[in-house]
Amino acid sequence: MQEPIHVLYYNDAGRMDQWQKTLGRMLPSLKLVTADSPDADKADVLMTWNPPNGLIADHHNLKGVISLGQGVDHVLKGKTFPPHLKLARLVDPFMADSMAEWVLLAILEKHRERDAYRDLEKRQEWVQFEQRLAGDYCVAVMGLGAIGSVVAQKAAMMGFRTIGWSRTAKTLSGVDARHGDDGFIACLGEADYLVSILPLTPETTDLYDAGTFARMKPGAVFINSGRGLQVVEDDLIAAIDNGMISAAVLDVTRTEPLPGGHPLWDHPGVTIWPHVSAQTSEISAAPQVVEAIKAIRAGREPENNVDISRGY
Ligand code: NAP
Ligand code: GLV
Description:
Layout: E1 5-10, H1 16-26, E2 30-33, E3 45-48, H2 55-58, E4 64-67, H3 73-76, E5 86-88, H4 93-111, H5 114-122, E6 138-142, H6 148-157, E7 161-166, E8 176-179, H7 180-190, E9 193-196, H8 210-215, E10 220-224, H9 233-241, E11 245-250, E12 270-272, H10 282-297
Parallel strand pairs: 1-2, 1-3, 3-4, 4-5, 6-7, 6-9, 7-8, 9-10, 10-11, 11-12
Helix pairs in contact: 1-10, 4-6
Bound molecules: NADP nicotinamide-adenine-dinucleotide phosphate and glyoxylic acid.
């Protein structure tokens, strides 16, 4: 009988069986174990999204870590990550498509004045507003990576004038891609819908503060599905209250879950979603997780290897 391949699992306990079943179909000798299992030290790979500090450094047999999300900030930020370990992340087209659905829903609800029509419906009033044309409105996608590039191209396909921002220069069909500080400021000034899908790094932490909101096009809608720590929430609330921007749609917040009584919950200009815009699917992610397990165990670089010095 083949020796079991032990893989340490630190993630949602309720999904462990599903991961075991799905990965086991492709790699029958795989055995997921938790940190309290007597076999935990036999594992040379860890699958996780938000490990407690110490978990990675304490397991001396690890050769690498697989992030069960596209972001790796929870694996790296404030944690000791031994430099000899490999780090793979998910790059799953299903997640990019899911995010595009969510972003387009957020944009279209505002663009087609869903709230105003719902209020009229409640009052049984038949009133027609002048229809807005997509081409008259600009969508800026901040972060043109695996997810943002797909979101931007789908926004462009819907007919919105679409611009975007990344760290390095990019060419994307249908999207006017910018980079650098000038590119950032230009996007702020032009966007009616500013969509942020950036990884959390020291450069993007607190990126959206009072100074940033002041540079945004008056009346713009701010949509964030990157990370909550990129937004200074008091400044966001003040920007909406002062009429600088009109609304925000947030899938991520500085503290998650968003605590009860937090002012974002019932702010009339803010829509809160519980970090669900692009959830990991065991089914679609399994092939790349298996590839990463094999690569890490063999000492090879996994396909979606993360450059730890870059932080994303
Ligand atoms: P990615 O492929 O690594 O792309 C990141 C993009 O951000 C790249 O275009 C990168 O520029 C740009 N970027 C990074 N730092 C920058 C900076 N300082 N200035 C300007 N641009 C910068 O990441 P992804 O897979 O698209 O995912 C992005 C993020 O979405 C994740 O890190 C995670 O935080 C978030 N996410 C959220 C959910 C959710 O459900 N809410 C789900 C999945 C992911 P370059 O192209 O020049 O490198
Ligand atoms: C979700 O937030 C992810 O990083 O995939």
